[in-house]
Amino acid sequence: MIRLGTRRSALATAQATHVAESLRALGHEVELVPIVTTGDTSRAPLEQIGGTGVFVSALRDALLAHEIDIAVHSLKDLPTAPVDGLTLGAIPLREDPRDVLVARDGLSLGELQTGALVGTGSPRRVAQLEALGLGLELTGIRGNVDSRIAMVADGKLDAVVLARAGLARLGRLSEVTETLDPIQVLPAPGQGALGIECRADDAAVLTALAPLEDPAVRAAVTAERQMLATLEAGCTAPVGALAEVVEGEDGPELWLRGALGQEGGVRRLSANGPVDDPHGLGRALANELLEQT
Ligand SMILES: NCc1[nH]cc(CCC(=O)O)c1CC(=O)O
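Above: inputs. Below: predicted complex with PBG.
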């Protein structure tokens, strides 16, 4: 029996159920164990309660205490610092990593009027949307995906920006009025991907998770997360990153695009490197972004 710890939110439950079903299809018995985190019980701005890490620390504690055997995380909410005794046993196939606009009356970004009220609490989205120069009024929001969409339906906001992956997992893709091109808005590092965490010495669980692994996604998100980790060493700026394995002339290559929001605008760079060194690529692009400052 594999005990899978999950937060209770609709998105977390959808992700956990998806992983549980993949494991059951491989012949494993899986039990879902609900875990409550500070991020779920508090309405305070995330920066005040410790950032997105609040969603994962309770799950990690439960893993280390042997109360659960695996935890399913949205990789974009998983801090990059490694935890002693834990490892990402599998990184499965990724959903579409892009951000989307959910706007009233089916509007796209370019159709929103100057001064239109757009909800997002993410410094990464704010920096990149402001850099577009559309004169949008950006306002911080929190809450689950349903309540954010409801703010548009209720007329409180003209639009919200969300991760396409979250809407896909909740069956709400019909709400999308525009998928944002990464040339305009780069997603968060790891967006759309799941990380399945387990104890590093749990050989049985590591074996069970192995078939869920997607090596190209692992390489891509490793580069994105390394870029973030290297940048955080120097500053806490809004960061977008998106990597992909693409077929080059001499075989597969890893491409990484990065965006760093700063006073005066957003810096963007891209670079490529060998698929087997995502850490080197992430570090190199981060250092290049920092050198430009
Ligand atoms: N910040 C919360 C969060 N964490 C993961 C997702 C969506 C799913 C994903 O990116 O994997 C979301 C919602 C959103 O940003 O719209």
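Residues 2-92+193-213 form a domain with the D-Maltodextrin-Binding Protein; domain 2 fold (CATH 3.40.190.10).
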